[in-house]
Amino acid sequence: MDEASRLPIGIFDSGVGGLTVLKAVRERLGAESLIYLGDTARLPYGTKSAQTVAAYALDASRRLVSYGIKALLVADNTSSAHALEALRAEFPGLPVVGVVEPGATAAAAASSHGRIVVCATESSVQAGTYPRAILHSRPGAQVTQLACPLFVSMVEEGMVDGPIAEQIARHYLDPLFTGPDAADCLLLGCTHFPVLAPLFHRLLGPKVAVVDSASTTAMVIEDLLSLRRLKAPEGGQGAIRYLATDAPERFARVATVFVPWAIKASEIESIDL
Ligand code: DGL
């Protein structure tokens, strides 16, 4: 067993939403140690330009790499859409995995007729990375992108069900999921949206596939670590270290929406990038 296999996986996101990806990795790869960096001081990334997002993603990744990691997981969809190539170029030899490709592959496979809606941040929509990745997996698919900024605030407020959440979801989704050309697959292209999946399932019914990239990304990471003989030794549970660039208290509070375990503010290290 290579010493490198004992190193943690570095995960970063613009904030707390990437914990949905951390959770999926934890469920699949419990023995792995994880370092999670939430760049809460500069969030949201989803409204920012490609250049800004790429610069932020580089800062966060450099910090994680400085701790010694065996793989970098870009949980933030917006950074995955804009910065993956730049990150791979910056850290040659380090496995760098984003969430766009795994999500796109999963949606391409899950959609019955290839009519796929991607809901994401405004900046991810502008990048157009999701449609390109879906069309790569499923040429001929009909892909519609939808920027859904209200979903992000809604989730951070813990509003994941109930009449207001339902109304906002209907506002975005009804036009695309009704009528003869209705879409048959909703790809959740943002860290925050997996917690809304039960609501979407209920509103859209059983014929619409609701796909999130978190679990597929965890599978991709597992395959990659296996291939490179970097999987942590089986047995115990890996440690999780949390870093945030802004107040640990808010991070800890909002985290309760995304993971079923409690994260205390005292467990979160404050850092500057
Ligand atoms: N993490 C972002 C994403 O997945 C959503 C929040 C933000 O805009 O920073 O695109």
What does this structure look like?
The chain contains eleven helices and ten strands. With 273 residues, it is α/β, with parallel strands linked by helices. The protein folds into two domains: 3-98 and 215-270, Rossmann fold (3-Layer(aba) Sandwich), CATH 3.40.50; 100-213, Rossmann fold (3-Layer(aba) Sandwich). A six-stranded parallel beta sheet has the order 4-3-1-2-9-10, with helices on both faces. It has a four-stranded parallel beta sheet with strand order 6-5-7-8, with helices on both faces. The chain starts with 8 loop residues before the first strand and ends with a strand. The model has no long low-confidence stretch (mean pLDDT 96). The structure holds D-glutamic acid (DGL). D-glutamic acid is lined by residues 13-15, 17, 43-46, 76-78, 121, 124, 152, 190-192.
